[in-house]
Amino acid sequence: MYICIVDWHALTAEYNDTGVLRDYVFQAAVDILAVGLDPNTCAIFVQSEVKEHAELHLIFSMLVTVATLTRLPTYQEKKEELESYGFLGYPVLQAADICLYNAHKVPVGKDQEKHIWLANDLAKRFNRIYGETFVLPEALFTEVPLILGSDRRKMSKSLNNDITVSATEKETEEKIRSFFTDEKKIRKGDPGNPDMCPVYMLHRVYTPDADEEIAPPCRTGELGCVDCKTRLSANLNAELAPLRQKRDELIGNPDYVWDVLRNGSDIARARAQRVMDKVRDNMKTSYRKRP
């Protein structure tokens, strides 16, 4: 598995304050390691340390139309805030991130499904024009493929509606208390619709038998939103406790974290170079090779 910390993608928002990127990279690596991903079986690396990402992004940009990119939901959501080509071409670089390793499965949330479709389509187009080169990637979803944030939009760090691994128990409780629930369920006793509730989505992940323990009393009104959120906070904090402990240990050992990233970059670079050699050969742009 190849796990890429995408600092070039971060430039769409942080291009004028790149001094923050080093800490962002470090914190992302700490989170990845804290939640249990093993650097002995995963290549965990920084995007900008594998220059082939930029090369494949450039090649893919020739195979996609501007109209296609402007129809993607991520562009539609933020086009008033971000106007750079980097933002418009974000999904093309994302496709390069995926295809550069010939990934066959990509673990994402449901909101990223169309971006994986674009990666699949670009791989198909390249294969059709230049010959079989890329595996066609597919999205890999969990049982709960979309988690909503506190404001009922998709959970996202950039929207500040997320719950982070680094948050304290108290901060997690406060964030969960701020979550919007079913707008028609005003007080305890009112029947609710858990299927439209972001708190219930999290219960499905962190509360055993949520479909029996949480959903039925929510529908009847027996379970009020305050009690529902309190139960979620307790379950979520219990799950996060060992991850937070591991995270604290990693924060105290930064040399180990940077070593993991250096080793991961070496592994990723070797794989990326092999794939790009095939890309150049099939495009007939390996000019120094004898015909």
Describe it.
The chain is mostly helical. The protein has helices spanning 7-14, 21-34, 52-61, 66-70, 73-78, 85-88, 90-99, 113-130, 169-177, 198-206, 210-213, 215-220, 225-251, 254-283; strands at residues 2-5, 43-46, 105-107, 138-140. Strand 3, helix 8 (113-130) and strand 4 form a beta-alpha-beta unit. Helix 3 crosses helix 7 and helix 7 crosses helix 8 (113-130). The longest helix has 30 residues, at 254-283. The radius of gyration is 22 Å and the shape is globular.
Give the arrangement of secondary structure elements.
Layout: E1 2-5, H1 7-14, H2 21-34, E2 43-46, H3 52-61, H4 66-70, H5 73-78, H6 85-88, H7 90-99, E3 105-107, H8 113-130, E4 138-140, H9 169-177, H10 198-206, H11 210-213, H12 215-220, H13 225-251, H14 254-283
Parallel strand pairs: 1-2, 3-4
